[in-house]
Amino acid sequence: MFDTVDGALAVRGQRSVDAVLDELGVGALLKEGGSTFDAALVAEAAGRHGVVIWPDERIMTVAACVGMATRALEDASAYACERVVFGRRIGEYQGVAHTLANAITEIEGTRLLVWRAIAARAEALAEAPRLDVQAFWWAAKAVLPAIKAAMRTFGGYGVSDDSPLPALYLAARAALYAGGDPDHILTAPLPVLAPADPVSISFTPDAEAAAWQARTEIFLEQFTPDEKAAFAGSSDNHLPELHRRLAAAGLLFPDWPLEWGGSGASALATSAVHRTLTHAGWPISVLVVSDSIGKLLMMFGTAEAKAEVLPRLARGEAIACLGLSEPSGGSDVFGARTRAVHDGARWIANGQKVFTTTAHQAEYVLLLARNEDGLTLFVAPLGQGFDLAPVQTFAGERTNITFYSDFAIEDRYLLGEASKGAKVLAATMTLEHNQGDYYLGALDFARAELLAGLDDLLERPEIRANEPAIRHSLARLDAHVALLESLSLRAIWAGDAGEGQRWFGPMCKLFGTESWHSCCAELVERFAPLSLDGTIPALAAIEKEARCGIQATIYGGANEIQRSVIAETRLNLPRSR
């Protein structure tokens, strides 16, 4: 439907848009028995040509504006692959590529939010009106900056009469501002939506995911407030007893196969477990690392290593850490200098790693090393030849610098083939980034902690005077969560179905971590200076999450790397790193 309409409009010549759409019979889509989802696809296709075909339907206006922004960004990206300035194509400059990557991430998230709002309305869900509002707000926030970024990519031509971009900008602005300042919509009364016929898409968790969420909530009821406080106060983000009890309850790695100690649950069910844990204030960073390393073993490990390591991880009696980043490389893992040489009996590694979180508690390490012919990865037991030095971070967490001095590794701990580690690394990055539930959980936790103490805080005159701004910031946080949920559900579904695209995970990581920091930092600002002294638990939680969010933009591949990946894979821009 989308391609049909877009193609017909692209070759319409002197015929009006209305005439073309009448020929295609799209007007029936919003009548009884029509598909609202198909209508949104048509609206987006028409939007690519500057037309809002159903201006009285707010969600269709959003879809049209998404089409305008997407067309602008794709045109700008194509131009950036051709235009040469200072001897280089402008798409190679991160100032161009990363700006477009930020824009397309928010626009794709808004498109998904449109689809989700439509599906929720068709399913008569209580959240449908709020999703409708949030989709419109995101369009108002993201579309015009996206078209502006495209115009600036073209330079002077982008603002000339010969360019289609100024017309797209003006059409989007007129549609989005017709009802007044769109920023007010977040805290205005919710709309009453007419019922809609069923559609072919759903974002609602299935019965399996709901059951695993309930199972996790029941599990968490056994922990006392003192135990939770002890966990929150730990710089390790890890309590061995909690880890073992999660394993005993079957909640550690639900989607692992039965043969390796899992339950064979779906990826969406596992996401529900992770989000429930983090929502309750139990960070899952250590769990997620061991989960990813276990899955790498299943994909690339030897039979001997699988038999030794996987059962230990599944029982919660061992954890694994990441030995990837190095002092001179950071996120450039392909530049690793740690050396591994085979002496005829085993591998001998020498080198240094940084930000090896939980190395002081782990039994195994995913170690990246270089030999004569390329990169090689191992899942190796930590022991003789291994040492570390602690590092305290800005957010109060402990990580480590680790040292490998004639560190011996048996052949059975090799992942994949020696010197051909690129394939394993690619899988590592995919597993690490397709986890939007981690960032969602952090935002859920921050919001829950603040709401729990909000009534008491509003009793203070200096806070009550700022209540409208506080309410608006909370609504903005909710809107960020809604868009991140949509990106995350896409990444999880696509990965499970084998339909993934290279940019799905990086978009989750980029948007999730930037939202984690920005939303919490905004709330710190709203409650200042009380939010800075650490004596009010609700505000102390928000302030700490704001710091954690900054770190998250660096860990797991700095967001600059994510922007480059998005630019190169989604927008087909040249390599910028």
TrEMBL record:
Key words, A-Z: FAD, Flavoprotein, Oxidoreductase
Tell me the ranges covered by the Acyl-CoA oxidase/dehydrogenase middle domain, including all copies.
Answer: 321-400
Native organism is Novosphingobium kunmingense
Q: What PROSITE patterns would the database entry show?
A: ACYL_COA_DH_1
Lineage of source species: Bacteria, Pseudomonadati, Pseudomonadota, Alphaproteobacteria, Sphingomonadales
Q: Which domain of life is it from?
A: Bacteria
Q: Which SUPFAM superfamilies match?
A: Acyl-CoA dehydrogenase C-terminal domain-like, Acyl-CoA dehydrogenase NM domain-like
Q: Which is a Pfam family this sequence falls into?
A: Acyl-CoA_dh_1
InterPro entries, per the entry: Acyl-CoA_DH_CS, Acyl-CoA_Oxase/DH_mid-dom, Acyl-CoA_Oxase/DH_mid-dom_sf, AcylCo_DH-like_C, AcylCo_DH/oxidase_C, AcylCoA_DH/ox_N, AcylCoA_DH/ox_N_sf, AcylCoA_DH/oxidase_NM_dom_sf
Domain Acyl-CoA dehydrogenase/oxidase N-terminal, which positions? 219-317
Cofactors, names only:
FAD
Q: Which residues form the Acyl-CoA dehydrogenase/oxidase C-terminal domain?
A: 57-181, 430-569
Q: What is this protein called?
A: Alkylation response protein AidB-like acyl-CoA dehydrogenase
GO terms assigned for molecular function: acyl-CoA dehydrogenase activity; flavin adenine dinucleotide binding
